[in-house]
Write a structure and sequence with these properties.
GO terms for molecular function: ATP binding; phosphorelay sensor kinase activity. The chain is an alpha+beta fold. The protein contains 11 helices and 11 strands. It has a 5-stranded mixed beta sheet.
Amino acid sequence: MDFGWLKRMMPRGLYGRAALILLVPIVTLQIVVSGQILQRYFRDVAAQMTTALVLDLALVRDQIASGGPAEDTALALQITIAPAAEGLTADRRLVYDLTGIEAIRVLRRDLPDLVAVDLMTDERFPVVALRAGDEIVALSVPRRRMSASNPHQLLVLMVFFGLFMTWVAYIFLRNQLKPIRRLALASEAFGKGQVVEYHPSGATEVRSAGRAFLDMRGRIEAMLEQRTLMLSGVSHDLRTPLTRMKLGLSILDQDADVAALLRDVEEMEALLATFLDFARGEALDDPVLTDPVTLADQIVADAKRIGGQISLTAPDLSEPVLLRPQAVRRCLSNLVSNALRYGVHARLTVVLADRAIRFTVEDDGPGIPPERRAEALKPFARLDAARNQDKGSGVGLGLAIARDIAQRHGGSLSLRDSADLGGLRVDLVLPR
């Protein structure tokens, strides 16, 4: 049996699910207990009491019909005899008078001469109209002789204390869920490259999870720092001999072989700079309020200064958003550089939404086949068949650096076809 519809209806948040777990047993208990109370008070007790009252009403009715001492008998039985009220020809009761339903049913069943029952005019002393001989008399009896007095009070108390205990349980439950929420926020912030202060608290299991998170965060930070230091050290150590080689080649006679060696040295320096950029991907600058349109305009201006054919599409009115400007600039610069390397014309588009900001870089180059886009995002991936490597040297770190920066912001980087330019389209989406 498919219960997918039930799963879709369930709350997705922890508070909602915990509240559901709390309320379902309480509501079920209320329904079961209420059903038993209704069965006892509204049917059994009311039926028994009304059955006993029928005997007294029948006795008074018979004495009135026979001319006996009906007044004395009625007084002894707490029954008041009065002329039948005008217009009392049908049973009357209040809508919420549930015990009155059972009382009227028993009176109708056991008193064949019953004309009508009025439970509405005076709730404390209802009137029973009976035919006694040739006349109709009204017998007023205390309501407590028909059914249990105020049975609704028990229901009111049950509902009140049920709601009160639900509120108390919710307060305790909220205090238990706070540490879980704090752990989730700390984990989410760390996923966005932010380190927020967090101290384990709450139940033993939550404290254990919190300590495990802190240990994991510490190990990840140490690993990233070691990787950055290692690559930075390697890059620095290799720059010195490369510089000596470059100086040595520059003083030699400039022939074809020396020129080729110089180009190799320059390419090695460029590769080392790229490695260093990739290693510094985790070392993001602090987030500050930044105008994304101004940032995009500066990147486009830098690309145009080196001869790139690129255009900018952005809203006229912009508002500052919380970004890491240096990291975003590095990411977009890599994307724009790739677009101009493999295409003739590129376009940068900025879209501001309520909860996110999207930078889109498109080109008119050969693009990347859909089946190889996941591979293109991996470090050191070089798709020679898809992207013409003759147009520039590289080690396949441009998209990897951009994706790494996007993930450190808590955003995403996706590749698709450009509908307008026909090449590759890269969407960088960052949360606001």
